[in-house]
Amino acid sequence: MSDLLYSLRYRFLVLVLLAWAPLPLVGQSVPLTPAQYQQDFEYFWTTVQDNYCYFDKKQTDWPRVRQLYAAELPTVTTRAQFVRLLENALAELYDSHASLSTNRPDSRRLIPTATDVWAQFVGSTAVVFDVRRGYGAARAGLQPGMELVAINDVPVAQALQPFLGRSLKTVDAAAREVALNLALAGDHRTPRKFTALVKGKPRHFYPDQDGLQLEHIGSSTLLESRRLGTVGYIKLHNSLGDNRLIAAFDSTLTTLQGTTGLILDLRETPSGGNTTVARALMGRFITQEQVYQRHELTAEQRQFGVKRSWLELVSPRGPVYSAPLVVLVGRWTGSMPEGITIGLDAMKRATTMGTEMARLNGAIVSYRMPNSGIGFSIPTERLFTPAGLPRENFVPAEYIQPSAAPADQVLEVALQRLGGRGGKP
């Protein structure tokens, strides 16, 4: 083997830096044999075993996963059954950056791409942390700070049980939080009902009462922009995986060159993107080549005991926008936009505002099983700030707690910071 990195990254895979949006499950014209299902499962299990880079912070017993799910393989006779087995096995990692390329109608929605609420535990109490502006949970009246007591009439403690892995040595806080948010995400066909306490009394919320909007998230435009007084504002529409964004961003930035400051809103970018687009955008704000993140490939160290890490650079590109810059982030800022945020922060080129981001682990690689053709993506590279902080642990410089206020408080604070005059968010 001439180069481990080559063999890891380019055989049976395509390197991407965003979580896949699952494709609809389609019929299988020729059923696989039991031996083929076994071969695909072994390929899946071994690939994760050899390349997944976050086992050290998980309670997952991956050899136990092999035992548990291999025992179920003799009952698998259809593609749909195999997809469910793979979903359950992958869920043992409780990692929202690990996913399949396909799904069933009763599969859970992807976190954070297809969710509209984020919750976390405060002790044993499930509390709404944030709701996604413009989507069902917010329209139904769910607000940050509310205590959740039931999901589809099932008490929260019971509702999350199906999403806790069977192989876990112990159920840690991270596993409970992922399970809670999977329960809240719902599946692709069932309307959700949340019960929360409002002034001490239970109240029901129906985020899907106007239809399953989360099944049709999308925008006809790559970005939106406007002037807010003397300040420019650019919001990306989850488009960091589309190379056309480079030209659209350049054109927009040209029209905003006369502004006294710029707000770059990354709060609606949950599906990640690619480094080409990310570096293109960051390159418009710097005058010299700079480091924006550090990579670490753990597979080589695991196999040979030799650590492999490197720094990634951003180069200046085009006319530089030199006025002050504020970057807005939140729970629906996922993967590549997290990289942009830590990069602009490390280069001391922007003030970051908002809350924790999606905290998606590392950079992912996508693989495809030899018989079924089912793809799966897992984090294989750890990502850090240039100073060594894990990307998933980054917190914006100005932390703004989500609130129930109808106004966009994060945008208001950004405008105040930039001294915007004469414009309203």
Q: What is the number of helices? A: 12
Can you give the helix content as a percent range?
A: 25-40%
User: Segments where pLDDT lies below 50 for 5+ residues?
Assistant: 1-28
Our count of domains comes out at 3
The CATH architecture designation of the largest domain is: Alpha-Beta Complex
Please state the CA-atom Rg, rounded to the nearest Å: 22 Å
User: SS-based structural class?
Assistant: alpha+beta
Overall strand count = 20
Q: In CATH, what is the class of the largest domain?
A: Alpha Beta
- The CATH homologous superfamily of the largest domain is termed 2-enoyl-CoA Hydratase, Chain A, domain 1
The largest sheet, given as strand count, sense and whether it forms a barrel, is: 6 strands, antiparallel
CATH fold label of the largest domain: 2-enoyl-CoA Hydratase, Chain A, domain 1
Gross morphology is globular
Report mean pLDDT, rounded to a whole number: 92
Protein name: Peptidase
InterPro entries: ClpP/crotonase-like_dom_sf, PDZ_sf, Tail-specific_protease, Tricorn_C1
Pfam families: Peptidase_S41, Tricorn_C1
GO molecular function: serine-type peptidase activity
SSE blueprint:
Blueprint: H1 4-10, E1 13-15, E2 23-24, H2 34-51, H3 62-70, H4 79-91, E3 99-100, E4 102-103, E5 117-122, E6 125-131, H5 136-139, E7 147-151, E8 154-155, H6 156-159, H7 173-185, E9 194-198, E10 201-205, E11 223-228, E12 231-236, H8 244-255, E13 261-265, H9 275-283, E14 290-297, H10 298-304, E15 308-314, E16 325-329, H11 336-346, E17 351-354, E18 363-368, E19 375-384, E20 398-399, H12 409-418
Parallel strand pairs: 2-4, 12-13, 13-16, 16-17, 17-20
Antiparallel strand pairs: 1-18, 3-19, 5-6, 6-7, 7-8, 7-9, 9-10, 11-12, 14-15, 14-19, 18-19
Helix pairs in contact: 2-3, 9-11
Pfam families: Peptidase_S41, Tricorn_C1
Protein name: Peptidase
GO molecular function, one term: serine-type peptidase activity
